[in-house]
Design a protein that fits this description.
About 50% of the residues lie in helices and about 15% in strands. It has about 260 residues and is of the alpha/beta class. It is elongated. It comes from Culicoides sonorensis.
């Protein structure tokens, strides 16, 4: 364990991470994955580009109508994703689809997205988690995600995590400060907000959410930049987890 890394994190008792586009990324774009899975069920009247457009459109519609994957509504998270797949494929298809087959595709995709088939780890994600844990910190996950998150992280062999908070199970999504407050309690130790650090890829959801809760935050851009939003939130920003880990181990940082 690097003594500099331990020094840089010395004032924190809790370090939490986002998942999507922070620790994990899609192995294939959803438009490609949806198309390939549909093809395997005999649906050939779609292509990745039109599926991607339909996916983004219907995701926004469902997220507005049933926020947080349907939490506290007449549908649950499984039905939320089933509807998204069905509406996406029907919109993207150049011909009328057999709805029983579309439903089978939906169930297949829902299962696939909790396995390594659809995800891969960012470089140094495992090493960063391990080294943070070795400093004696409580390590947690705070993610706008449904109830598959725990299964997914287990399937992806993340072994350095003390607790996992999917927004669907907490009932609120980032940047709501209640999910950060829940993380303090979930740690099982006495922690003040100033002793907690959250690392994620979204300016508003991760950094602003953490800062509003009295935490510290770090932005991981992962090659995406939004200079306008970045100017509105003051927190350290790194292009990749690898760069963050290197700086934690080699430089004295003001976190």
């Amino acid at each position: 364990m690097s003594s500099m890394l331990a020094h840089n994190l010395s004032r924190f008792k809790l370090v939490t991470f986002d998942v999507t586009n922070t620790l994990l990324k899609f192995s294939k774009a959803p438009g490609v994955q949806y198309t390939e899975t549909a093809n395997s069920h005999g649906i050939t009247s779609i292509e990745p580009k039109t599926v991607s457009i339909a996916f983004r459109k219907n995701f926004k519609i469902l997220a507005k109508e049933y926020p947080n994957f349907g939490y506290n509504s007449q549908i649950n998270w499984h039905e939320w994703w089933r509807l998204l797949v069905i509406q996406t494929l029907n919109d993207a298809s150049s011909s009328k689809l057999d709805q029983k087959t579309v439903n089978k595709v939906a169930y297949t995709l829902i299962e696939q997205y909790q396995t390594p088939l659809c995800w891969e780890k960012y470089h140094k994600a495992d090493e960063l988690l391990r080294k943070v844990k070795e400093t004696g910190k409580c390590v947690g996950i705070i993610s706008n995600f449904d109830s598959r998150l725990k299964t997914l992280l287990n399937n992806m062999k993340f072994n350095q995590i003390d607790f996992i908070l999917p927004s669907y199970e907490i009932g609120v999504m980032k940047p709501n400060t209640k999910i950060f407050e829940k993380a303090l309690k979930e740690s099982g130790i006495l922690i003040s907000p100033s002793e907690a650090l959250h690392i994620g890829n979204e300016i508003e959801l991760d950094c602003k959410g953490a800062l509003d809760a009295g935490w510290s935050g770090i932005l991981i851009r992962n090659c995406e930049r939004d200079s306008i939003k970045e100017n509105l939130v003051k927190c350290p920003m790194y292009d990749t987890l690898e760069i963050l880990l290197n700086d934690l181990e080699t430089k004295e940082l003001n976190l």
